[in-house]
Amino acid sequence: MLPFALLVRLDARPGKEDEVERLLHDALPLVQLEPATAEWYALRLGPTQFAVFDAFPDEEARQTHLTGDVVKVFTERADELLTAPPHVERADVVAHRIML
């Protein structure tokens, strides 16, 4: 089980929705370079709302992700693309099912 997680909410500025979606899509190769980021999902929740959910085997992996390139990219572009800074919530996974 991957008990450590993050839920990050992003609210795109009007007219910037496609750029946020593209940035999330383009972030995947950066995440793939993080061996301890076991799961990473970029989600569109509504017209301007996006989220990222990721899971990790331990707190060290979660912290490494929080200081990695993906977070830096979003931090650098937050003022341009988002109505507010990304809202990052630490979460504990209490149950899961993955079917491949």
Structural overview:
There is one protein chain. A four-stranded antiparallel β-sheet has the order 2-3-1-4. The relative contact order is 0.30. α1 packs antiparallel against α3. The mean pLDDT is 95. Helices cover 37% and strands 28% of the residues. The protein has a single domain, classed as Alpha-Beta Plaits (2-Layer Sandwich), CATH 3.30.70.100. It is an alpha+beta fold and 100 residues long.
Précis, in short:
This protein is of the alpha+beta class.
Task: List the SSEs and their pairings.
Blueprint: E1 4-11, H1 17-32, E2 39-44, E3 49-56, H2 59-66, H3 69-81, E4 87-92
Antiparallel strand pairs: 1-3, 1-4, 2-3
Helix pairs in contact: 1-3
